[in-house]
Description:
By secondary structure, this protein is an alpha/beta fold. 36% of the residues lie in helices and 17% in strands. It is globular and about 110 Å long.
Amino acid sequence: MKAVSSKRKDRLENKKRKMAALVNITQLNEYDRANNKTKMARLEETSTIIEDSNQTKPEPSTKKVKISHNTEKSPCDPGPPLIGDLGPSGKPKLNGAEFSELKKMLRNKTNRIRQQPCFRLRDMGENASVALDLELRMPLFLSDLQHLIMYSQIGPHSPYSPARWCALDKYNKLANFNLLIVENVSLYHFSAHESMFPNLNNFTHQLEVVTPKAYMSDIVRDLSMVPLTGTQMKKFVDKFGTLESAVTQSTEVFDTLKNSFPIERTEEDADQHNGNVAVADKFSRTKLLLSGWQMVEENFPLPIKGLMERKYRGYVLTKDLYGDVTPSSPMYALDCEMCRTSTGDLELTRVSVVDENLKTFYDTLVKPDNKIVDYLTQYSGINAKMMKNVTKKLADVQQDLRRLLPKDAIIVGQSLSNDFHALKMMHPYVIDTSVIFNLTGDRTRKTKLQTLTREFLRERIQESKKGHCSTEDSLACMKLTQLKLKKSVFYGDAVMGGGNDVRAYPDMATSQYATSMLRQCAKMDSTVHVAGVDELAAKYRFYVDKNAEGRGDGQITFASAHTNDGVVEDLCRNAGKHNVNIGHVRVSDGDLCDISRSETFRVIDNWTKKLNDSCKMPSLNVVLLGGHQDSGNGVCFMFLKKEFIK
């Protein structure tokens, strides 16, 4: 016990010495300054004596002035200040009261800093920074911003988390979340005229965002609608019987079928879409399709403007024009095998496709463009002997699949994004068995195909010492999907079956249905205010309540103005009154012409300054340049305004 007591005393002494450093330095500096003044006074006095001596003597003295080197202290010298006993290091010690006071002061300062909200980017957010080279940049989507808005108000109760790209600590300490949307202005406009945006340049983060116009959508719809989670879907199904009924009977559920692909919708397709499900299916197979946002999360290649020229250069669509997917659309299971080539990458070496009758629809070996350096036989099942006389190239396979697949084909597979990247192809209608089946209860943790096949089909695959077989894997995926269609949408899914909300991305079976983002924000007694130019405010109101009339329900209010300046004034006026404030303005193409462009950009930058000056602290301020149909993606500026603690 004595040893412990001695160590504790040593630690306490160390703390006292460290915390006394600031006081010690200050006092010693004061002492040094006092000494310097005394020395200067003595030098001046000596100089005066010498001058007087020179004046009284007619001849200059050849003797040098004697300067005393006596080190004894003068009675007038006060000496160093009394600052207590010195420790072993020669630094003064603080007594109990002084030590406690200093410790309390530092603790209070630390607590104040810790209680402030903190916003930072994760890797996905950093990858979207406009500071990166264009080739390395991976832009965010508007849904990412949507998730941040919801999380800033209801935290872990938000149906979706922004954790994939950012982190917001102490979200409940935010006074406001302020968003100004400037439609029709793009990242290109900002980059080409950066000097005209001094206030925007002061924002901490500048991130590229894919414009909704690139995938045939619009900002209001993408920002306002949140895909239903598993729990929400169950609630509406229990109340209304089906989600289709909920759309017509409830003001909170919306039908929102979006697609990035060129789809031709005919009356015949519409009739089939509204028709009965396939004979063996208990529910429509379209309910298992991944939504566009899920495809983004799963890293599927998508034909989005900007990405096609960068990340997906050389990729092709499976069809030039697609038909509308229906409950009777045919399913095809796909699996690919890859080998490592001299480039260090994995390249396609085999493709297998199986139809709904469990028959091989397409199966071929593929010769990579580069030399194979590792066949990865234990995984791919490919060896040198198999590839000896293969001449078919990737481009040939792409042409075959484009010719053979129907325009409304549904592609089934396990972690299909890898297969599509290997094929360098894009397809709109996909069912991923790693998503529709889940044994972990966590969407981000996938279950292997071998495990799914063993647990649900009572079959064993991938056990051959010769490696995997793509035909065998395709068959397993098709059987799993057909089994689920015979059961229910919840079958084999621990996430939905357990009634848990999906935190990473939307459930399958709900990609077509959504609820209001603004309603989600107002759940915890937060208030929301939306100001829009012309008809934009009415569009936001519609996505809160389809049958709404008037200005709002108290928690969510709307204001419309005929000019952009009027919207900004309303936004700034209400910035300190509501938890979430959204202002949406639109810049015309005429304002972007050569004559008026400079003035337009200066006005936009001035709006930014007004918003930043009018909001409370701490607040998260976001300015979104929404992108332009012809000049590319948008850009999101983010700044956390908070008190600087000295």
